[in-house]
Amino acid sequence: MAILVTGAAGFIGSHVAQRLLDRGEVVVGLDNLNDYYDPRIKDARLARLMRNQGFSFVRMDIAQRADMEALFATHRFPRVVHLAAQAGVRYSIENPHAYVHSNIVGFQNILEGCRHSGCEHLVYASSSSVYGGNAKLPFSVEDSVDHPLSLYAASKKANELFAHAYSNLFRLPTTGLRFFTVYGPWGRPDMALFLFTKNILEGKPIDVFNHGKHRRDFTYIDDIAEGIVRTLDTTASPDSHFDAAHPNPGTSSAPWRVYNIGNSRPVELLDYIGAIEKCVGRKAIMNLLPLQPGDVPDTMADVEALERDMGYRPATSVVVGVERFVRWYREYYGV
């Protein structure tokens, strides 16, 4: 039976769908192909997937309840990878309703579809942004995440709470993955690596927030896709050691889990830019700016739980990952 991958024309979704297809799965991809960023790259990602015999595509908005009910009634997906969402921390400040529409209403429709169709496991995208104002590094799934700094982060925290309620009430196995700054070929044009590479090649300035003092746990897309597939294959189950008197925020007496998926080796933004400069062969013209509202200065993932339960730890270095991205960018845009 088919696996549903939402956000299949997106950066992460297209890579996950391809990895599932490569191992012989049948995949139904769903995407609304909106214009949050240039839809031409979404079309190109989708065209690559459409070359696979086991892939079919549905253009649909996850926030449309009737359409989603019909989709789940027709296919009764045994497993679902939910990656469709309105992304972006800064965009959420100016467009809050878009996040409620997609990340809250849309996620509710996914949960209802899974509940009523007998889904065996739902894996969904959370985000490292849920750690918000936490200063302790590395970020652990056992840490409290009650202080989000952006509406985007709040929507992802809400997803984890909604999922827990469904896991508790309806015994729906759900696993949330907190992604840490994903990058690589076919990436989003609104993200730093894409923007930096484009502008450096064109001799244009790049905006560097927090004067480049950010430290980010950059995680390569192939590592992310592998982690998602491994998680999908490992159905969430109740924690037999869960103590309600001293609850662990990362587990539950319900079949619910959350995991960090990151490189665990944070890199300062200026060093990241340096890696791009080396690959491009040009120096960046930097417009140094203060920290933006909603941004977190540093991120670092504790991935011990992922390694323990999935037998997997992301490993691609920034030097290797950036080189692969720049090579893809030059080939894709012919520059």
Kindly list the characteristics that best describe this protein.
single chain; 335 residues; alpha/beta; 7-stranded parallel β-sheet; two-stranded parallel sheet; 11 helices; 13 strands
Strands, helices and their partners?
Blueprint lengths: L2 E4 L4 H12 L4 E5 L7 H12 L4 E5 L5 H11 L3 E4 L6 H6 L1 H22 L3 E7 L23 H20 L3 E6 L2 E2 L8 H11 L2 E4 L6 E2 L2 E2 H13 L22 E6 L5 E2 H12 L4 E4 L15 H7 L7 H16 L2
Parallel strand pairs: 1-2, 1-4, 2-3, 4-5, 5-6, 6-11, 7-10, 8-13
Antiparallel strand pairs: 9-12
Helix pairs in contact: 1-2, 1-8, 3-5, 5-6, 7-9, 9-11
Report on the architecture of this protein.
- This protein has 335 residues and is α/β, with parallel strands linked by helices.
- It has eleven helices and 13 strands.
- The chain has a seven-stranded parallel beta sheet with strand order 3-2-1-4-5-6-11, with helices on both faces.
- Helix 2 links the parallel strand 2 and strand 3.
- Helix 1 runs parallel beside helix 2.
- The longest helix is centred in the first third of the chain and has 22 residues.
